[in-house]
Amino acid sequence: MASLLPYIQLVLSILLIGGILLQRSEAGLGAAFGADGMNATRYARRGFERFLFIGTIITAILFAATAFISLFFRS
After folding, report:
1. Which one of 23, 36, 57, 64 is CB 3.0 to 4.6 Å from 31, fit for a cystine?
2. Could you give the CA distance from residue 45 to residue 52 in angstroms, rounded to a whole number?
3. C-beta pairs of 68-71 under 8 Å, 24+ apart in sequence
4. Cβ-proximal residues to 7 (8 Å cutoff; 6+ apart), any chain
5. Which pTM value belongs to this model?
6. What is the rounded distance in angstroms from the CA atom of residue 54 to the CA atom of residue 29?
7. Measured between alpha carbons, how far is 63 from 11 in angstroms, rounded to an integer?
């Protein structure tokens, strides 16, 4: 199991990067300073965008879990 963890983390990190890059970014420089903050709360994800969002969250959780597991297998 300990020899597989780096490969699992590599695959999860590539999936995580891809999931983040595929998501739509509505926030511009104005939103960073609060100019467009009200419209962001009324936005609902639907279809593939919601699937991608939830998949990215699950991938991030799995990546964090494998990182913590790898701490216990190191000697």
Report:
1. 36
2. 10
3. 69/5, 70/2, 70/5, 70/6, 70/9
4. none
5. 0.73
6. 25
7. 9
Enclosing H/E stretch for 71: helix 48-73
Cα 47 to its chain centre, rounded Å, is: 18
Residues with Cβ within 8 Å of 53's Cβ and at least 6 positions away in sequence, in order, are 23, 45
Q: If DSSP states are collapsed to H, E and C, what string results for 5-68?
A: HHHHHHHHHHHHHHHHHHCCCCCCHHHHCCCCHHHHCCCCCCCHHHHHHHHHHHHHHHHHHHHH
Residues present in the chain in total: 75
Q: Which two tokens stand for residue 68?
A: 């913590």
